[in-house]
Specification:
Elements (H helix, E strand, L loop, with lengths): L9 H5 L4 E3 L4 H12 L4 E5 L15 H5 L7 H6 L1 H19 L5 H11 L3 E6 L5 H5 L4 E3 L2 E8 L5 E3 H11 L9 E2 L5 E2 L20 E5 L8 H12 L3 E5 L6 H12 L4 E4 L12 E3 L3 H12 L1
Parallel strand pairs: 1-12, 2-3, 2-10, 3-4, 10-11, 11-12
Antiparallel strand pairs: 5-6, 5-9, 7-8
Helix pairs in contact: 2-11, 6-11
Length: 298
Amino acid sequence: MMPHSPYLSEETEGASALRFYNHERAEEGIRELATWLQGRRIAVLTGAGCSTDSGIPDYRSEESLKRKRNPIQYNQFLRDLSARRRYWARSFVGWPRFRDKEPNLTHQILARIEQQGRMTGLITQNVDRLHHKAGSSRIVELHGALADVRCLDCGLFEPRDDVQARLAECNAAWHAEVLSIAPDGDVDLPQEAYDSFEMVSCLRCHGPLKPHVVFFGENVAQEVVQAAWEIVLQADALLVLGSSLTVYSGYRFVKGAAEQEKPVAIVNLGATRGDPHASLRLDLPLKTVMPHLETLLS
């Protein structure tokens, strides 16, 4: 029996259109996914679950939900200088740990699938650039990437590593104990560590700097959304990997694909907001699914 999902109506849960597989039917589900992919060019949408095997935690796993820390809100970053200082202090400590993460098998297999001509492109909600490191080429970063920093006043871009070097120079004597790391490269620090941290500003106009990522409460740029739609429109089907689709920025493409009568398959541990629109759902870890899937497709 399909486990209860807050995103499934009673009608959807009982419908035969959705084929559901969990660990008890893992092999059967992976084989069906391979068959589902054959002869189709697919758009792929990835979420935080794609990077957990690289050591980057997601937002909604059991362990993540135990953490009391809330991600910074966009308006808070803009208007509250102390909140902005806290962000940059935490990011200063977290960035090297985040930057040095390496692609896992899922990233690598997706790059090889693209090279085989099976994909129209990849849309990711992640900000870690691991798909780039793995060798994928046509990528739309819905939420930007932490590797870039932008001035809020004049729009000048600067590499995050260059900003890190300037922060290190200004805070040579500063030290803080890391309590935990988050999916956006942020870390938890003791409260007393924030007050003495020095921020840096734009090299051109001395305006405030912000990582070039979409914060909670911030909209995805229209040109980014359009580039993602192009990937979906050119595809025969949509494959979602490692996303609960709780955030609308990713969910819109599942809903849109279904409205265009393009089949949707989802591989994710736990229920997703897109379940009512999927024809195939695997409640399995990506590290279990992807290597076997690649073998079956070869």
